[in-house]
């Protein structure tokens, strides 16, 4: 089989690898049918990632199950499934507590798409072995488009977690979104669907702002801190100065969720944060825990993640098209629509 390998800045190529087979009775083999790049993949492809190449890339996809071990009971060959980005057993104390991105059964940071916590391969591959298949794989609900939901492995479900629990606790909250890429746009859609009274989306890209406006958000190219302006702020730029703006814009005891991967150092306004009493969370996401709830929202018809998909390419175009700058490209192959 082939797996797409990141080899240098803005350069990927197919490399041959052995066909995976179940290594235990609890494994499954899946074939991605709609895969997309995470927002952080854009930074990696631009040469800003912390891990030197080469390594297999990709950690967001909907896949079709092709084979299962004898102990797998929740999925079967032919099923369409979402493959969460983090490797998790579902049984250790951390997994039972919902911390599936910190599973104690594997090395810390075990994941698809980067050689952290072991070599698990990437989801831009013809075939992928998924351990603990019953715990990891989530069937794609009937009626959902694999192309629209290719990001459910990470960015879409992360976006749900960034806002949904907070809007449940603070109905009608005012939401600030400072973003680059797909996460901020998904957040706009979800926030409006779940009752945010105001959503301000900040992004220098006019095409991104246009999409945010279709979700009912106000938009701006840039802002100065808005003192006591928002109950909830979402930052997904990877820029510490933008994170500082988000923090300075919160009401007392406001909440800031940072989904940016900050590869470069910077300074936060710690004294202002202390005086305002803000709550800041910066964390890799436990997607498998809340993936079913996120998919339920998608199935409800209240949101439209398909608008964020910028391009749909054939699977064979991956080496040429992935390094190009696209908001949210999805790469499909048969039987994606079967």
From TrEMBL:
Entry-linked InterPro entries: ADH-like_N (IPR013154), GroES-like_sf (IPR011032), NAD(P)-bd_dom_sf (IPR036291)
Keyword entries, A-Z: Metal-binding, Zinc
Domain Alcohol dehydrogenase-like N-terminal intervals: 26-140
Cofactor(s) this protein cannot do without: Zn(2+)
Keyword Zinc among UniProt keywords: yes
Superkingdom: Bacteria
GO molecular function, one term: metal ion binding
Keyword Zinc: yes
Pfam family membership, one: ADH_N
Protein name: Dehydrogenase
Species, as recorded: Amycolatopsis vastitatis
Taxonomic placement: Bacteria, Bacillati, Actinomycetota, Actinomycetes, Pseudonocardiales
